Amino acid sequence: MTTKDKIARRKLSLLDLAKDLDNVSKACRLMGYSRQQFYEIRRNFQTYGADGLIDRLPGAKGPHPN
Quick count: other Cβ atoms within 10 Å of Cβ 17? Predict the structure, then answer.
């Protein structure tokens, strides 16, 4: 299991915990995330599914001048 997979599983666990507790703030405190991060994670999951949980690094904006 790669580091990206572990992070994605942790984010999914956060979403599940918030649903089980029916309390976003408490779930975030327990898992070490801010509420802002939670809502971003949830939005990405709802939009892209499991692929939305994987952290993506921004790529190059265009060709690099040499």
Answer: 16
**How many other C-beta atoms lie within 10 A of the C-beta of residue 23?**
13
CB-based contact 14:37 (threshold 8 Å): no
Residue 42, token pair as written in the block:
């949830």
CA distance 16 to 22: 10
pLDDT tens by residue, 3-58: 888 999 999 999 999 999 999 999 999 999 999 999 999 999 999 999 999 987 77
Using CA atoms, how far residue 6 sits from 2, 25, 59, in Å, is: 6, 22, 22
Q: Around Cβ 14, how many Cβ atoms within 10 Å?
A: 23
Question: pTM score, two decimals?
Answer: 0.81
